[in-house]
Design goal:
The complex is a heterodimer of chains A (273) and B (84). Chain A is built from 13 helices and eight strands. Chain A is globular. With 273 residues, chain A is of the alpha/beta class. In chain A, a hairpin with a 6-residue loop joins strand 3 and strand 4. Chain A has an eight-stranded mixed beta sheet with strand order 3-4-2-5-1-6-7-8, with helices on both faces. In chain A, 45% of the residues are buried. Chain B has 84 residues and is an alpha+beta fold. Chain B has a domain of 48 residues: 2-Layer Sandwich (Cell Cycle, Chain A), CATH 3.30.1070.10. In chain B, strand 1 and strand 2 form a beta hairpin. The longest helix of chain B is centred in the first third of the chain and has 18 residues. The model of chain B has no long low-confidence stretch (mean pLDDT 83). Classes of the chains: A alpha/beta (273), B alpha+beta (84). Chains A and B meet through helix 7 and helix 10 of A and helix 1 of B.
Amino acid sequence: MATVVTVTSGKGGVGKTTSSAAIGTGLAMRGHKTVIIDFDVGLRNLDLIMGCERRVVFDFVNVINGEANLSQALIKDKRVENLFIFPTSQTRDKDVLTVQGVEKVLNDLKGQGFEYIICDSPAGIEHGAVTALYFADEAVVVTNPEVSSVRDSDRILGILASKSRRAVRGEAPVKEHLLITRYSPARVERGEMLTVKDVQDILAIPLMGVIPESTAVLKASNTGTPVILDEESEAGMAYKDAVGRFVGEQRAFRFMDVPKKGLFQKLFGAAAS
Amino acid sequence: MSFLDIFRRRPEASASIAKERLQLILQHERAGRDDPEFLPRLQKDLLAVIGKYVAIREDHLAVSVQRNSHSAVLEINIELPPKM
């Protein structure tokens, strides 16, 4: 049985594509046949984050319009077994994604034995974002610990509860997961940033992971490598933990506290850290 | 943090202000989330009609829907000026 997972947030720039790439890669590394679909028509970027931008020939819209078949458009990842990328189109016509067209593509992917179909949603609450979440079985709500992002996440939770197919049909609700990104324990300690608990209290959905603010994320996007493959980095490890929790494992939360300074660091401060 | 910080007055942490503001606004926004989409237009039309007879302020006309398990009630509250 395939699971459709929509990565969404309302607000732009919070880390949806970074998270889609990391979660999809993480699920494939665990042996699940996974495809990541870019739903951001007109602003294709998943291909760059995954490092396969030069291999795009056909896209999502070509397949919906019957100009190419699925196997021509799917890009097989060269690093991770079981992982495929489905790039979007750069057309400026945002309404090309029809519900019927998307449904057919999702059914074809299910027929090809995909276990996880990750939908990387565009920002906003317009047609594209609603189409990306319509078929969701589960949703990863990506939130920065910052007022506008939290408010927009709450709005998206409202849309999941009213406009997803599960809601419209009165089926079991979409299973929601909170993923907090760009978390800075040092700023939280100084009282400058909402805590994980604050965000969780407000949005009231289960916490799947906390990704610390990390230079590794920009480095990964520079080179077109999903950050979860950077196994030395805190962000990479935090995504790995998050994927573990997503599939139901119990994992302790890491990287949420400021590391205690030793005597050496106390004496030499910034030079040592 | 150095020992001199002890003598500085700490400003109120901005994160707690953020949390309070969010809780207030989201409480308000969640309450209106299940309202039918026509409510704002209905409110505008009502204002136009009533405005023909008596001058009222926009914020003195409230339209809302109250639901319970078997019915929904459209509630319209219009506050009139004391002297007409």
